[in-house]
């Protein structure tokens, strides 16, 4: 299983994104049997980021929401939750450089022993620390 982060999904779906080509490469480089997964908080964050980008980049919101829904329907939704104290501890360890959602991903990645596909270097470094 591989967990997807918002930065990866947005880059993958947005041809104008600076990391779009790299996201395509990363996805194509995965084993075909690898299951792609998303945490519900990342799902919410991704839809919010896409909606904001639609306003800022003159995209047609309905088309993007349909595109994101189609993509999300191919992913496994991860049913993992962590104690709020543990999440806050991860945020503190990162000196608040991780968002709440990113801290949840760090804990989810560690619990499931699953890598995270992301372009967020801070998130990636904490996921690798385990």
Structural description of this entry:
- By secondary structure, the chain is α/β, with parallel strands linked by helices.
- It has one domain: Rossmann fold.
- The chain contains seven helices and four strands, in the order E-H-H-E-H-H-E-H-H-E-H.
- The protein has a four-stranded parallel β-sheet with strand order 3-2-1-4.
- Helix 1 crosses helix 3 (40-57), helix 3 (40-57) runs antiparallel to helix 4 and helix 6 packs parallel to helix 7.
- It is globular.
- The model has no long low-confidence stretch (mean pLDDT 91).
Task: Describe the structure concisely for a colleague.
The chain is of the alpha/beta class and 130 residues long.
Features:
single chain; about 130 residues; alpha/beta; Rossmann fold; 4-stranded parallel β-sheet; 7 helices; 4 strands
SSE layout and pairings?
Elements: E1 2-4, H1 6-13, H2 20-28, E2 36-38, H3 40-57, H4 61-72, E3 76-77, H5 84-93, H6 100-112, E4 116-117, H7 121-129
Parallel strand pairs: 1-2, 1-4, 2-3
């Amino acid at each position: 299983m591989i967990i997807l982060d918002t930065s990866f999904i947005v880059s993958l779906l947005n041809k104008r994104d600076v990391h779009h080509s790299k996201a395509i490469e990363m996805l194509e480089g995965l084993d075909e049997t690898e299951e792609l997964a998303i945490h519900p908080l990342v799902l919410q964050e991704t839809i919010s980021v896409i909606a904001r980008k639609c306003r800022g980049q003159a995209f047609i919101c309905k088309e993007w929401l349909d595109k994101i829904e189609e993509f999300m329907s191919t992913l496994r939704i991860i049913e993992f939750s962590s104690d709020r104290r543990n999440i806050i501890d991860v945020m503190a360890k990162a000196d608040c450089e991780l968002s709440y959602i990113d801290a949840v991903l760090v804990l989810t990645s560690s619990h499931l022993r699953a890598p995270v596909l992301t372009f967020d270097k801070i998130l990636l470094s904490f996921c690798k620390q385990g």
